[in-house]
Amino acid sequence: MMKKSKVFLSAIALASAALVSSQASAVEIINNTTLELVDNFAEADGFFAGGQKGNTFVDNYSFNLSQAGEFAAGIFSVTGNAKNGLDITAFNLIDSAGALFGGTLLSTGATDQWSLSTSSLSAGTYTLQVKGSILSNASGRYSTNIALAPVPEPETYAMMLAGLGLLGFTARRRNKKAAAAALAA
């Protein structure tokens, strides 16, 4: 009976060690990249080779905005089914003060898709952050796009108002001429 107990306890110890070692093998992969906006647009891809099931990742894409504007970004990852590839768990924009703008999850499963937008982003340094986990030993990939629509400078508004004023003046002058011609006839 004592011998069976020792064998049983040894089996439990071995199983526990295997469980702990498999949990300890999970790794958080952190990637930091600097992006350059070209014509107010940038794109980036995340790729994870096979054999990394259970690992998590945090990809940080830093970029500078030279002027204020409306910001929009999207991310998607497509796999054969919900058990393969990547699970994107967060899509955030972080400013230099650490303020967080969270993205919106549009779909999850075989296709993970997020969007993120803000209408009043000031000039400065920002980080677009992608977080997720690797679901299988197959490789996984995601793609993200960033776009900025600059806010017009005050001079642009002044020129637009002057142009509208000139159009209004011209239209009023034509109306007066047409009214005078109608009275004369």
UniProtKB/TrEMBL annotation:
Signal sequence annotation: 1-26
Q: The Ice-binding protein C-terminal domain covers which part of the protein?
A: 150-174
Q: Give the InterPro entries listed for this entry.
A: Ice-binding_C
Q: Does the keyword Signal apply?
A: yes
Q: Which UniProt keywords apply?
A: Signal
Q: Report the protein name in the record.
A: PEP-CTERM sorting domain-containing protein
Q: Which organism is it from?
A: Massilia aquatica
